[in-house]
Amino acid sequence: MRHVFKAFDKDGYYTLFNGDRLYQKDLKNIFIAGSSTPLIWDFNNLYCHPELELKDPDGDRIYETTLIMNSKKNIKRSSPFWKLSRDISAFPQYKSDFPISDAIYNLSLEEMINAIEPDSTFRTGKSGPEYGQGT
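The structure corresponding to this sequence follows.
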């Protein structure tokens, strides 16, 4: 950010990579973004997450925040076991001397069945409210 503030002090604006100008009066907040929880890449909604805003309480242009990474509440919990819940008898069966590969094959068949829509098409790609679409 030093080069941004240096440009603000010298010219009153900073020239962005695309040639647009960012004026000092337009810089309202600075946020941190990322893919590790609690960070997000949703730039349009960063303002909804005040914990991701970097602050400069003493005005020395050093922005900081405290993030709690790997919090127990942020740990995604998954079941320690899996049990087949769909009828896969209509598909070719696979048996081996390795239970893990048998389970992966059966799980793949079950996931394929779960991806079949009511109109018999496969659900593919990303969908859901987190991607701006319905479920």
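The mean pLDDT is 87.
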